[in-house]
Amino acid sequence: MTWILPVLIRHRRSTRQVAALRGVTTPMTVLDAAVVVLALVVLLGLLLLLGVVRRLRDHTERLHRLERGRPPVDTVPANLDIGNFTATSLRGESVSADWLVGGESVVAFLTYGCSACKVQLPALRDHAGTPGGKVLIVAALVPGEEPDPTALRAEVGDTPVIVEEQFGGPIQHGFRVDKYPTFYLVGADGAPKATAGSLRDLLRARTELQVGTTAS
Fold it and tell me: Which of 14, 58, 105, 129 is the most buried (most CB within 10 A)?
């Protein structure tokens, strides 16, 4: 429909030019009314499109979660022991379970070929940029997928600590990860507090946990 509007405008302009040459004043016609109506319709369509784009990411997250059949937030067993893992980050930093102690952190488990994981990367970048936004990203190396740590770093920025390990590696095993993406909220004591399939749901659960702790 949008291509009709320029055609009508050009046609009306030509009509007025011809009328001006003849010295004739042309009143508003059906064509003028059609141009106005089409302009309003196009404007309304653009406004609706902006609303759809704004909600697209949220809907995408919900669809991925429904496809996996997992609830928004899962509770973590009180006796979950993640083990004393050790790893080396992409920047050469030594990372272990002790790294999680001393401040609240988010541990994100992703794979390079996971489309649902890529949707979460902007949110990870934003959270890592907030005060106290301590983030550990564990990139699982799945057979058949092409690792691209450079692209991952470009998406999440320089703040998160990124570790690569083989699919089903010790960190994934310690956190009992069997779906991707998976996010864990880890307390200052190094113990997991909550887990979710999206960072937004995890941070919402963190707020609820803080409210519950304050109330008690």
Answer: 105
What phi-psi label fits residue 144: left (phi over 0), alpha (psi between -120 and 50 degrees) or beta? left
What span, in angstroms and rounded, lies between the C-alpha atoms of 37 and 200? 41
Strand 192-196 and strand 182-186: the pairing is antiparallel
Token pair in block for residue 114: 């996971």
| Count of CB atoms situated within 10 Å of the CB of 156 | 24
Examine the pLDDT at 68 and tell me if it is beyond 70: no
Question: Which residues, at least 6 apart from 114, have a Cβ–Cβ distance to it below 8 Å?
Answer: 180, 181
- For residue 181, is the peptide bond before it cis, meaning its omega torsion is within 30 degrees of 0? yes
pTM: 0.65
* Residue located via tokens 């399939």: 197
pLDDT of residue 35: 63
User: What would the mean pLDDT of 9-25 be, rounded to a whole number?
Assistant: 56
- Cα–Cα distance measured from residue 11 to residue 177, given in angstroms and rounded to the nearest whole number: 64
Q: Are 194 and 75 in contact (CB under 8 A)?
A: yes
